[in-house]
């Protein structure tokens, strides 16, 4: 029996939840090991051996270790092509290239403004940090422009890279989930195609399981 891969980090982390969603889509057995950011466990020497930048997630599969959630998702999809969702990262070079271009769009265009909004709107209040209204407004405008591009694209195809759900869509779930739970959810729902797309991708069983994991007590630390 294959050894379960290990994911280090709290499921509340957007990057960790991206990896968890991919593992569930691919039906890959995994062990989630909590890393307490509040206690500084992500900066301890043992963890830095896995993730030299001291961030989450870190990932282990037998003798190899990886970091950066999108790279981990690509690895999982390539290593387990016949498990779970077989088309998650495409089945030919053209499909993979299309998925990759929208993954790049997510990482370079969607993630920067949405990550700022997630912190300012979802995390700052919990941490009792004053919100920066100027920063919120600036990044809301940036995100609107990105979602306008998505609105056009999603009027042409069911999902970002084509007519099948892929890593390109999955990668948007973590930040979008947090924003949908704030008063900025209308950024998605006010756009017909984006709203339809969000409803479909957030309704997947794999993502529902991740959201439940975020609500549960964290597993033991390493």
From TrEMBL:
CDD domains xref list: GST_C_Phi (cd03187), GST_N_Phi (cd03053)
UniProt-recorded Gene Ontology molecular function terms: glutathione binding; glutathione transferase activity
Alphabetized UniProt keyword annotations: Transferase
EC assignment: 2.5.1.18
GO cellular component terms attached to this protein's record: cytoplasm
Sequence ranges assigned to domain GST C-terminal in this UniProt record: 92-221
Domain of life: Eukaryota
Residue ranges constituting the GST N-terminal domain according to the UniProt record: 3-84
Catalytic reaction list: RX + glutathione = an S-substituted glutathione + a halide anion + H(+)
GO biological process: glutathione metabolic process; toxin catabolic process
InterPro entries tied to this protein: Glutathione-S-Trfase_C-like, Glutathione-S-Trfase_C_sf, Glutathione_S-Trfase, Glutathione_S-Trfase_N, GST_C, GST_Phi_C, Thioredoxin-like_sf
Matches recorded under SUPFAM superfamilies: GST C-terminal domain-like (SSF47616), Thioredoxin-like (SSF52833)
Enzyme class, first EC level, given as a word: transferase
PANTHER family: GLUTATHIONE S-TRANSFERASE RHO, GLUTATHIONE TRANSFERASE
Family as reported in the entry's similarity comment: Belongs to the GST superfamily. Phi family.
Name of the protein this chain belongs to: glutathione transferase
């Amino acid at each position: 029996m294959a050894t379960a891969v290990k994911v280090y980090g709290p499921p509340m982390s957007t990057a960790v939840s991206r990896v968890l969603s991919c593992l569930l889509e691919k039906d890959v057995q995994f062990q989630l090991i909590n890393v307490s950011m509040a206690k500084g466990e992500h900066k301890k020497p043992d963890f830095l051996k896995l993730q030299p930048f001291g961030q989450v997630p870190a990932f282990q599969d037998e003798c190899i270790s990886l970091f950066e959630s999108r790279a981990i998702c690509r690895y999982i999809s390539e290593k387990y092509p016949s498990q779970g969702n077989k088309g998650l990262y495409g089945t030919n070079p053209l499909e993979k290239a299309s998925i990759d271009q929208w993954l790049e769009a997510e990482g370079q265009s969607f993630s920067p403004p949405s990550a700022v909004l997630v912190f300012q709107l979802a995390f700052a209040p919990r941490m009792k940090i004053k919100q920066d209204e100027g920063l919120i407004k600036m990044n809301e405008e940036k995100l609107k422009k990105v979602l306008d591009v998505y609105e056009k694209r999603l009027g042409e195809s069911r999902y970002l890279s084509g007519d099948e759900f892929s890593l390109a869509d999955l990668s948007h779930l973590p930040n979008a989930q947090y924003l949908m739970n704030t008063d900025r959810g209308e950024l998605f729902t006010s756009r017909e195609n984006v709203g339809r797309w969000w409803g479909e991708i957030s309704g997947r069983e794999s993502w529902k399981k991740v959201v439940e994991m975020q609500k549960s007590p964290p597993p033991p630390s390493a």
